[in-house]
Write a structure and sequence with these properties.
Length: 284
């Protein structure tokens, strides 16, 4: 499903665009699921839970001041998101990119930036690998546009080739940990910001249509512009997938995901194959 030229672009740039990779049916079902779950959050009501004690609940938040809304870990608990994870092209796209026999959904994360959010709705520069408790190249993010994203709709930014930089930077958001000293082996996030500002020719702006998706390397530096549109929200779903070439290596800023079994994995091991869902494909 991924062409050789797309795979080479991912390897070279650290990100690749897959145009219209999800049909309108999936975009509609995912959008409706987000709105359904967000309405519960905004009403102060509990989100549904699948009943499996081994899976942490879905959660989220909404900032009325900036119009930013988040939702996390909907797939195990919502039938439409679960169907998307198991039946849509998502797993096959990731497996095709990686050449992996098996890929598994680790967790899903949703971003909504309401119209008029302005400069405070921008996302600062960061990379995702520091938040991962697994180490290795087989942890891409699949970012799906659920709305059209023009230049005023908080488009994603990436720094071309930044995935080849081995340095680690702390995440820009560290609730409750902002005043802790910088972890050993990490560079200040201000270094990343300064280097991006000094290399504007390497910054790519992703204006896309609903149904387009981006596969993003875990080490790729990325951000978003402000939400300047006063007419529409920018809604996207990103999902993190586990291939075969990785091992459990928790870091100072990492998150173990929503499967409680990851908390007790031995260092250096690969997670078991009972995460939801697992898609097995034959490699010819």
């Amino acid at each position: 499903m991924i062409s050789e030229s797309q795979r080479k672009e991912y390897e070279t740039e650290g990100v690749v665009l897959l145009e219209q990779s999800f049909a309108p049916e999936w975009i509609s079902r995912l959008t409706n699921a987000f709105d359904r779950l967000q309405s519960l959050l905004r009403a102060g009501r509990a989100l549904p839970h699948c009943g499996d004690p081994g899976i942490r609940p879905a959660d989220g938040d909404f900032d009325a001041r900036t119009g930013r809304a988040h939702l996390r870990n909907a797939a195990p608990h919502d039938p439409d998101v679960r169907a998307w994870a198991a039946e849509s092209p998502a797993a096959d796209l990731v497996a095709s990119l990686l050449g992996a026999r098996t890929v598994q959904l680790w967790y899903d994360l949703w971003f909504c930036k309401e119209a008029g959010g302005g400069i405070e709705a921008a996302t600062p520069w960061h990379h995702d690998s520091v938040g991962h408790c697994f180490e290795g190249p087989h942890i891409p993010s699949l970012w799906i546009a659920l709305s059209d994203v023009g230049p005023d709709d908080a488009p994603l930014l990436t720094l071309q080739g930044s995935h080849r930089d081995p340095r680690l930077f702390p995440p820009p958001y560290r609730p409750g940990k902002e005043h802790l000293p910088l972890a050993e082996g990490y560079s200040p996030i201000e270094v990343m910001q300064a280097e991006v500002a000094a290399q504007p020719s390497r910054v790519r702006v992703w204006t896309v249509r609903a149904g387009d998706s981006l596969l993003i390397h875990p080490q790729t530096w990325h951000a978003s512009l402000p939400q300047r549109s006063s007419e529409q929200r920018r809604l996207a779903c990103t999902s993190r997938w586990l291939g075969t070439d990785l091992s459990f290596q928790p870091r100072p800023y990492s998150f173990n995901g929503y499967y409680r079994g990851a908390d007790s994995l031995p260092i250096g091991t690969r997670p078991p194959y009972d995460f939801l869902p697992a898609r097995v494909r034959s490699i010819s």
